[in-house]
Amino acid sequence: MNQFQVDEERCIQCGECVAECPAGVINMDDYPVIYKEGCYQCQHCLAVCPTGAVSILGRDPDASILLDGNMPDPAKLEVLIKGRRSVRRYTGKDLSPALIDELLDIANHSPTGVNVQGVLFTVVREGAVLKKILEEVMDKLGKLHDAGELPEGLVAQYIGMAVSAWKNEGQDIICRGAPHLLITSAPKDAPCPAQDSLIALTTFQLMAHAKGVGTFWDGMFMMALSLLPDLVKRLGIPENHLLGYAMGFGEPEVEYHRTVQRGPVKVHFVD
Ligand SMILES: Cc1cc2nc3c(=O)[nH]c(=O)nc-3n(C[C@H](O)[C@H](O)[C@H](O)COP(=O)(O)O)c2cc1C
To answer: Would you say the pTM of this structure is higher than 0.85?
Structure first.
């Protein structure tokens, strides 16, 4: 079942896989076995085995990264979290496809509700393509703006600003000159599509910054998506998907030298 295999020469019968399984489908006979349906496919059995004896879903435990001594130093992780900035100045050079693939592969390790792993990463991998999309978007937003057809309120205000900056100063405040765009989405009928998509994007962002790639959450592009229903189709995002969010990314032109200093955390302890 689920290609669960135990290497009997490596297995020390410690029972960790049995105790760990969140679905409770592993039993210890002489060696561990999956004895009923209901595996979540989370691979905790493979991850928790101290001797690398467990294989599931056809995965070779020796192909996993060993955790002992390889976890990041918390102080460095703190610097990454506090030192990440919204990057709004880019060199405009495309990142290598290999680097983008690597970041996506890592982001794909984000948790998902009920482990459905249904997040779709829609990526603009070439700056020239994003430029073309942006030109189409600005053209359509400009027409809506000129016809007075933007919805009242903040959206009209921000999109109006973006349209005039584009027309009058040739300035892009929608994608901020980022050559790449990532939009995460997930099937609406997944258990947690909004949360899954946002967690994946957050993970992508932190790893991107760790590798020297700049990113920013692109609310302006989200506004454009909400105003231009054809844009979702143009990007090839399935109709049955809930959009998570958009993120611009690329090689930063700016370099930050210190963290910012935030106010005290708003916290409410419950007695
Ligand atoms: C949901 C969300 C949407 C955002 N949308 C935009 C945006 O459209 N354009 C932009 O330049 N920055 C955008 N930002 C970045 C915020 O303005 C930024 O996080 C904030 O100013 C703090 O700066 P920092 O990220 O460098 O700490 C967005 C951030 C979030 C979380």
So the answer is: yes
